[in-house]
Design brief:
43% of the residues lie in helices and 14% in strands. The longest helix has 16 residues, at 118-133. By secondary structure, the protein is of the alpha/beta class. The chain has 13 helices and eight strands. The protein is globular, with a radius of gyration of 18 Å. It has helices spanning 14-18, 28-40, 63-70, 85-94, 107-114, 118-133, 161-174, 190-204, 220-230, 257-266, 275-288, 297-301, 310-315, and strands spanning 9-12, 45-50, 77-82, 98-104, 142-148, 178-183, 209-213, 234-237. The chain has one domain: TIM Barrel. The chain has an eight-stranded parallel β-barrel, surrounded by nine helices. Bound molecules: coenzyme A (COA) and zinc ion (ZN). Coenzyme A binds at residues 20, 50-53, 56-57, 81, 83-84, 86-87, 90, 102, 113-115, 148, 245-247.
Length: 316
């Protein structure tokens, strides 16, 4: 079989962003089946859980088991969200190779979300990087830094571009391996995305910049095309468009993974994802989340008549 080619890296975040607001515990075996199936469909990276206190979000009480199971899947990049140093310690102990730290550009949201000032979050990030540096090279995880509410906040409204850039610079100076620009509450539009991405890319240098959009107001995929125009190659999305921050009023689902993969594929951009297998994964996943409404146009409408995906074209 030919090696999978990818122009764009799509990353599933539903198991974290989607499940964190879902009060019903999804059985660990169902989470692992979801991860396994989506990896099989060709999604190269999955944020499988969140290392938050289980008392705060009981959905993630099985974080260790989920990570251990996911880490057995060949070639899958397994990542997990961490809100603090303790979360990083838990991830490192389990051998998770990618940790996604989060800081909110909105100071109010940062306080609500992680119960401390934004500056304290930046200091904590420095402590995490220092901890990582004490590890032997082969054990060091990749440390991503998410800029939550970078495109708007339901507490503070508009977020100043200078604050986004300041946060990005602080995290880059501290040693972030990746910056993720997050539209946590779905306030962005393509013009804003262009302005913010341009500014962040200008300070990021060789460090990759990723996009994390929510489709709260229907601008999600339009924002993706704006980010693509800026040269962004890494996109978070969730199967069935699950998602939302429990500490941000009005937050709703991420952009829909199936729709994102279809749009990119139709544009001739290789994601390595088999759209049929992805839709099957959605179907299986939906059975164990029957109390959740899934979103998505591709699942509703199906593939266009005679559609040939980039994957099929590659294999032909
Ligand atoms: N994992 C597990 N337990 C943790 C933890 C972690 N990452 N961080 C802290 N704890 C434990 C502490 O050991 C302590 O336990 P104890 O009561 O048995 O002594 C308890 O939780 C409180 O610790 P503290 O440091 O005072 O935390 P806090 O109450 O100030 O909460 C956060 C801070 C960051 C842990 C919490 O606000 C959080 O997890 N926020 C993330 C919210 C989120 O997931 N948002 C959506 C994604 S962006
Ligand atoms: Zn999100």
């Amino acid at each position: 079989m030919s090696r999978i080619q990818r122009d764009i890296i799509v990353r599933e975040v539903g198991l974290r962003d989607g499940l964190q607001i879902h009060p019903t515990f999804m059985p660990t075996t169902d989470k692992l089946a979801w991860i396994q199936n989506e990896a099989q469909a060709g999604v190269p990276e999955i944020e499988v859980t969140s290392f938050v206190p289980p008392k705060l979000i009981p959905q993630f009480a099985d974080a260790s088991e989920v990570c251990q199971g996911a880490l057995e899947i060949q070639d899958l990049v397994v990542s997990a969200l961490i809100p603090n140093l303790k979360g990083a310690q838990r991830g490192i102990e389990l051998g998770v190779k990618k940790l996604n730290y989060v800081v909110s550009v909105s100071k109010t949201h940062n306080l609500k979300n992680v119960r401390r000032e934004r500056d304290a979050s930046i200091e904590d990030f420095k402590a995490i990087v220092n901890l990582i540096k004490t590890l032997p090279l082969e054990q060091r995880p990749f440390i991503g830094a998410g800029l939550s509410t970078a495109l708007g906040c339901s507490y503070e409204g508009k977020i100043a571009l200078s604050e986004v850039v300041l946060c990005a610079e602080q995290l880059l100076d501290a040693g972030a391996d990746e910056i993720v620009v997050c539209d946590t509450v779905g306030y962005a539009d393509p013009a804003l995305v262009r302005a913010v991405m341009k500014a962040v890319l200008a300070v990021a240098g060789h460090v990759p910049v990723a996009a994390h959009f929510h489709d709260t107001r229907g601008t999600g995929l339009a924002n993706v095309t704006a980010a693509l125009d800026c040269g962004i190659k890494y996109f978070d999305a969730s199967l069935g468009g699950l998602g939302g921050c429990p500490f941000a009023p009005g937050a709703s689902g991420n952009i829909v993974m199936e729709d994102l993969c279809f749009m990119l594929d139709a544009m001739g951009l290789k994601t390595g994802v088999n759209l049929d297998l992805l839709l099957k994964t959605r179907e299986t996943m939906s059975k164990s989340l029957s109390d959740l409404k899934l979103h998505g146009a591709l699942a509703r409408a199906g593939l266009p008549n005679g559609y040939v995906s980039t994957l099929q074209a590659q294999e032909a």
